[in-house]
Design goal:
By secondary structure, this protein is an alpha/beta fold. It has two domains: 165 residues, Rossmann fold; 181 residues, Glycogen Phosphorylase B (Rossmann fold), CATH 3.40.50.2000. Helix content is 45%, strand content 14%. It has 15 helices and twelve strands. The strands form two sheets. It has a six-stranded parallel β-sheet with strand order 2-1-3-4-5-6, with helices on both faces. A six-stranded parallel β-sheet has the order 9-8-7-10-11-12, sandwiched between helices. Helix 3 crosses helix 5 and helix 11 crosses helix 14. The relative contact order is 0.12.
């Protein structure tokens, strides 16, 4: 089965969607061709309108010359528009993959809704990366027959971490005898690191050995630094920018509990939260919120605690519980590791998509 993926979001660009498509390409069992925009062949930024017009030529030419069994559309707008228009002239099968924000943006105006509905109704399969997006898509097109959920995955083994790096982090942040609460992610309001910082002073009264590490970059950096100062958390909370992948995994190994209490803002929600599973892979319990597609990644009482968005009391209680009840913390971490390895390996997730397409 020859398959072509067309997308703007592919490495070396960095992000959850890019990672999804990279692993799709890496683990696909048969011939898989990626059409991306790294050589600017899909977009012409000099055009005043319809900058995506070059993608029409690329898609048409690819379909005529390669004759793929399937075309997978990684960006509903505008690449889905080009694909849909070509479907009037060439008979071929295409699937659309949706993650969350891409669908929200594709339905935020009347003309986008018009296009998106036709693109999705013409598609043979619609693959959603989480159950929240699937619910929205089903309501939008009025049918669940072609909508399928395939969550992101993880690799079976974390990278090897240099012992000297671990030793250095323990020494630099005086972690001996301490417990580490960890957050990782782009510093945007939706990730909601602020809520953790605001309840931390009360938590420290119960557990003074706790410290909080935040890894990330983004527009909320100044606000987070201000909160650390305002809440008098110097020496108890650190914001670390430009952290390497090895350092990220080192902190995941060093932490006792991972927390990311996301919330939805203007249609932008956490599509899944692969970092919850990465923490689980190292047998760490996680704290998350019932927001977006997070409930696919975190099951309350199985691999962590799931609270309501904006519930400061629930957040505080969950952090205290998992940093003071070692038996429960260990149990949830081990259960999370088993679930991550059993249910979310990339090889299995990609095979699900392959089998869906193969069945048509």
């Amino acid at each position: 089965m020859k398959t072509v993926l067309i997308t703007f979001e592919f490495p070396p660009l960095v992000g959850g969607v890019e990672n999804y498509y990279k692993n799709l390409a890496d683990h696909w069992p048969e011939e898989f061709i990626v059409l991306d925009n790294h050589d600017n062949k899909l977009l012409n930024k000099k055009l005043l309108f319809f900058k995506w017009l070059p993608s029409l030529k690329v898609i048409f030419s690819t379909l005529k010359t390669l004759k793929p069994d399937w075309l997978i559309v990684g960006d509903i707008l505008p690449l889905g528009t080009a694909t849909w228009l070509i479907s009037f002239f060439i008979s071929f099968k295409y699937a659309v993959i949706l993650h969350g924000l891409d669908f929200s943006k594709a339905t935020n105006s009347s003309w986008k809704r018009f296009l998106s509905k036709r693109i999705l109704k013409t598609a043979k399969i619609i693959i959603c990366a989480n159950s929240r997006t699937a619910e929205l898509v089903i309501a939008f097109i009025g049918s669940d027959k072609k909508v399928k959920i395939v969550n992101p995955g993880i690799n079976s083994q974390p990278p090897i971490i240099r012992p000297e790096l671990m030793t250095g982090l323990r020494s630099n942040y005086d972690l001996t005898g301490k417990q580490v609460l960890l957050s990782i992610g782009r510093l945007i309001k939706r990730k909601n690191v602020a809520d953790v910082l605001m309840v931390l002073p009360e938590i420290l009264q119960t557990n003074p050995k706790l410290c909080y590490i935040i890894l990330g970059n983004g527009p909320e950096e100044d606000n987070i630094k201000k909160l650390i100062n305002d809440e008098e958390l110097k020496g108890k909370a650190w914001l670390l920018n430009d952290v390497s992948d090895e350092e990220k995994w080192a902190w995941l190994e060093l932490c006792d509990v991972f927390v990311m209490p996301t919330k939805e803002i203007n249609g932008d929600y956490e599509g899944f939260g692969i970092v919850y599973l990465e923490a689980n892979l190292l047998a760490k319990p996680v704290i998350a919120t019932r927001s977006g597609g997070v409930s696919d990644a975190v099951i309350d009482g199985l691999n962590g605690r799931l609270i309501e968005p904006g519930d400061a009391t629930g957040l505080k209680q969950a952090i205290i519980e998992l940093t003071t009840n070692q038996a429960l913390s260990t149990q949830l971490g081990e259960q999370g590791k088993a679930r991550a390895l059993n249910d979310f390996l990339w090889t299995k997730q990609v095979q699900k998509i392959y089998d869906l397409l193969k069945s048509y």
